[in-house]
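Obj.: predict assembly geometry.
Materials: sequence records (below).
Method: joint structure prediction, all chains together.
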Amino acid sequence: MTSTAARSGIALAILALCVSARPVALSERGPETRTATSVFAELVEAHRSADEATSAKCLDALSTHSRAVLRSIAERAAEPGRSADVANAALVMLRRFGGPEDVALGAHLYRVGAGPDLEATLIAIVARDPRTLVVLDGLTRSVPPEVIAIFVRAVETRGSAEAAAWLARCAERAPEVRGEALARLGRLAESLPNSLPEEAREVVRNVLAGIGSDALRDAVVAAGRMEDGDSIPHLIALLGEEDPGLRSDAVWALERITGLKLRERRERWEDWYAGELAWWRDRSDAAFADLESTDVATRTRALLELSSRRASRDRLALRVIPLLDHADSTTAKLAAWTLRSLRAKCGVGPLIRALDHAESAVRLEAWRALRGITRKDLPEDAALWRAACPG
Amino acid sequence: MKLQGFRTARTSRRGGAMIAALLVVFAVATLSMIQLQLDLSKAREQRTAVDTKRAFYMAEAGLAEAFQGIASGKSGNVGTADEPARFANGIFFTTAKEEGLGRVTLTSTGLCGAGRATLSIVVERTSSSIASLGFFGDELVNVEGGATIDSYDSRQGKYTPPVIMVGSPPLVGAKVGSNQSLLVGGSSGTTNVYGDAQPGPSGVLVRGRNTTISGSTAPFLTANMLEAIVVPTYRDQGSVTTSPLKPIVTVPAGERSFSTLHVTALTKLVITGPARIVVADLVVDSLGELSVDASKGPVELYVTDWLALKSGSKVSTGNADPRSVSLLVSASQVVDQDGNGSLDQPVTLAATGALQGTIYAPGAAVTIPSSLQVSGAASAKRLTIGAGARMHFDTSLLEAGANESGLPRLVGWRLVELPNVPVVKLRFDALRALKLNGITPVRGDSAHFDIGVLPP
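Observations (raw structure tokens):
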């Protein structure tokens, strides 16, 4: 009798377990009563069938579970032998909940053809936490090139000077993706309101100096987009190359950097650059000294002279920037105008400060200069400019 | 005595003063004449200089007029030596000489008073049409691994594969571009773009392994707008479905509209030019064939809802001039077109064969597979050139056609010798001479010649 009752009890328990294990839709049971694993199983199915509404519900349900639980699910999904659908669903989960510490796990979840999923996940994590860049730095040594390329695409979306520096480091370390990293570095530099860090520009110049590199043309375009004056001698040297495409890109970059239209005539570029160098050698010290003159006319002449230069514009701008705070408002105004002529991104911060200048004429010229340099159409409001051009 | 002396003195001085006076008068008159001659000569010199200067500007005006003419679809010839065009108080005539590859030499002679000047420039015709951009995508262009994009000029014959020899200059002329990013090459195969591959102003070019781009890779300075297609409206002639009972159906020349053109297996639809056909759904089943005959005139095929050239179907355009076959797809919606429960892209090009023409689908994603060779150009919202595909850009599309044009590009400028024509040899004001001969020159803007019309 007892054994019969015991058998019945066991049978009931098994039945109860079976019933509880039956897969049910989210609508039938509340998320709080379901295990994370079962919700994840539903997420796998929803992601496979591109059912975004159910995917979103599953992610909401998973949000009630602890990070440790979710991470353990993702770790199991990354195990060898798991299907691509499971790995991709785990990437979707990390997209919502992941942090910098989960980036390596994300890379392990990558399967062939899952590039967009990994990219979207990394973009989300990078956007949430800039420390992710440090983690990615370490990972570039251990993941395959196709995953590094996904890192490159994700980091570019961060859109900051740190991201630019990361791309430059990646271009230096990972030759397989050097071209793409440089191309994206160039585009990022173009969109940033401030100058790139010198080490990032140095990487581009190093590639330019190494004629024959696979990424040479990407570096040429990147130098043009960065408007890096120190790349000019390398670019002029490329005008002597046989490859017409390379010459064409070099001319584009030179014209972009200098604003001159000397076409594909190497001699003319060389003559012009020799003139610039001669100015730096023979005239620059006197012009810089004149900037500090007590005579307004002398200062004005010096500023006009500087504004006509086309090479090493950032270095010139650094000499001009202190004049934005000059006691003479005419000089301060002319300094803002000179920065605009030089199109020097290093002048953006000081020009934003000049928007608070006591003289309206200086404020107006600083605003014009900011619009010209950054190509942003913002009103004459320092707060708005600070928000648009952080750092 | 005194009186006698007085008389003697007077007698001795008689006529002397007069001679002296005459000499003075003569001298003054001579000097005056010399001065007059000098002044006249100076005035003549000045007038000649002014006339020469005016003639120079007159010649410049002639060049500007011809430039304007080319920009608006004219030949560049303005006036003739016998009947020049008038501008202010002078005349000019401009001749245009086709130099090939879209270049035109314009030579303008200006005459004003006694001044004459001849100037010459070389301009390059450019086209404002999207077809001139080659293989172009608004959002993305993806040239997959192993694909090759080169160029040819359909005016010099049909496409023949280029012979690449060691040491020969690299091939150029092809055009691939995007308003955003451009992906060229993949992980497998050798990808060649024999020409430019340019991303958009804020786009980026990403190259795969073993990729050659012989032209520019610099980003475009400005984005190129893909204009919406203006679909003409004609009376709807219903649906046409081919059947094995009548395996070849011909759509004759003319302007027509259809709800559906459905080419079933083992049948053929022939569209004969000159034709402008509007169709909502154009479907070619596997083993069906769509043939376009543009030998007698251009064919424009507008597809508004669904273009499906299914796998195993065939497309042929004969040896058509790519400028005379246009496939314009205004469809953009991804919907279930055939009711099989799955969504259909507005454009499916899975056919085999050769399409010599242009494809324009500004609202749709287009994938051109390796089985379909396109000679001409293709533009789409998102364009994918399939792995191993062979595309040939027709450089004649760079030139403005008869009904559309872009701004010509100045290539060179120089002063040249005066032409050996009677009007230039006249020693006086040519405008007055023409009027005396009963010729009243017309204004420059009325003196243009159309393309193909040679000045007498």
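Conclusions so far: The domain at 180-269 of chain A is CATH 1.25.10 (Leucine-rich Repeat Variant).
To do: check interface contacts against the pulldown list.
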